[in-house]
Write a structure and sequence with these properties.
Helices cover 43% and strands 14% of the residues. By secondary structure, the chain is of the alpha/beta class. It folds into two domains: 218 residues, Rossmann fold; 97 residues, Rossmann fold. Strand 3, helix 4 and strand 4 form a beta-alpha-beta unit. It binds ligand AN7. The site of ligand AN7 has 22 residues, from helix 4, helix 9 and helix 13.
């Protein structure tokens, strides 16, 4: 058996973490890079497509990579409590890692706009969950103000150690492919992850001449401040994870897109849900709506001729597991057939 290596130790030479950093881990990272040839075929063109399946992290999202770093740093400097605002996944991740570290977690979430699996997670891990009658952006502003007044460690992606931890996914992709892909597609909300990937790829390239991907960042049309060029006061989208109108790292996201020769685009809720269904149906990979946004953006770019995938190696980051948000699948009511417990009745249904 291979001994366990903490993600942070594995890439320590590429991560800017202070010496006091402790070690709080749930064995995050090391997620699979899954080829999805069936999906690539339906998108058209002759190219290679992989999913970096971040939904397989311990709490079901990519946030765990950043959280192992941020909570470890906070614990190492003696912090007792952590706080964050969240559309759900950060809350669940912060709650889990705080529990592991013996710390208290306070999480602020926009009321009524958090998927069931995320809220349940945060509660199960013992966080103090506070619903704010407002947007994520408003909750984040409150959290920032609180950390200026009280000794609370802020673990949103404004925290630089979150970014350090999340860079490791870019390193893993390069390690598996032997080089950077030609394109990287991912959803963009508060823009921490796109910032982390771009920093990671650049750094890896400086060390290993791995090349650099073009970055396609994808927002939901109702929450697309980086596409519109101004904050969105009342963001809306079915992809509640990325229901964010004023991304904290928006400038860095735009810079990543520009420097890489990529772009940031928007897709509709219909495109997001159609892609979620398509990916699950043709590859057996069920991701939450926000996580389908990157792929929906890729599909849109190919369809409209703005991206020629021929011969390209493309990686789509699927940031969260489908089980985070079961209601999206069941909310329209389930049209399931019901039969008496008789073989004849089953026979009739199966042969029709
Ligand atoms: C599944 O949990 O912002 O652009 O508070 O949960 O780094 O914000 C979640 C974001 C993409 C966007 N996919 O990442 C939160 C939160 C999923 C997410 C994003 C999020 P960023």
């Amino acid at each position: 058996m291979t001994p366990f290596t903490w993600l942070i130790d594995q890439y320590r030479h590429l991560l800017d973490l202070p010496p006091h950093t402790a070690r709080v881990t749930l064995h995050e990272g090391h997620t699979p890079l899954i080829p999805v040839p069936n999906l690539a075929k339906t998108l058209g063109g002759d190219f290679q497509l992989w999913i970096k399946y971040e939904g397989l992290n311990p709490t079901g999202s990519f946030k765990d990579r950043g959280m192992t770093a941020a909570i470890s740093e906070a614990l190492g400097r003696g912090a007792r409590s952590v706080i964050c605002a969240s559309t759900g996944n950060t809350a669940a991740s912060a709650a889990a890692y705080a529990a592991r570290a013996g710390m208290q977690a306070i999480v602020l979430v926009p009321q009524g706009k958090v998927a069931a699996g995320k809220l349940a997670g945060a509660i199960a891990y013992g966080a103090q969950v506070v619903q704010v009658d407002g947007s994520f952006d408003e909750a984040l502003a409150m959290v920032v103000a609180m950390t200026e007044k009280h000794p609370l460690a802020l673990v949103n992606s404004i925290n630089p150690y979150r970014i350090e931890g999340q860079k490791t996914s870019a390193f893993e992709i390069c390690d598996v492919l032997g080089a950077a892909p030609d394109w990287l597609c991912l959803p963009v909300g508060n823009a921490g992850n796109i910032t982390a990937y771009w920093a990671g790829f650049k750094q890896y390239h400086a060390h290993h001449s791995s090349g650099l991907p073009q970055v396609l960042g994808v927002q939901a049309a109702g929450s697309a401040p980086l596409v519109l060029g101004h904050p969105v006061l009342h963001p809306e989208t079915v992809a509640t994870a990325i229901r964010i109108g004023q991304p904290a790292r928006g400038e860095q996201a735009l810079q990543a897109a520009q420097e890489s020769g990529g772009r940031i685009i928007a897709v509709s809720d219909e495109q997001i849900l159609a892609m979620q269904k398509q990916l699950a149906g043709c590859e057996g990979i069920w991701v939450e709506p926000a996580s389908a946004a990157g792929l929906a953006g890729l599909a849109q770019q190919i369809e409209t001729g703005q991206l020629d995938p021929s011969g390209q190696r493309i990686v789509a980051v699927c940031t969260g597991h489908g089980m985070k948000d079961p209601d999206i699948i069941t909310q329209g009511g389930l049209s399931l057939k019901s039969i008496p417990a008789e073989l004849g009745a089953l026979d009739e249904i199966i042969i029709r």
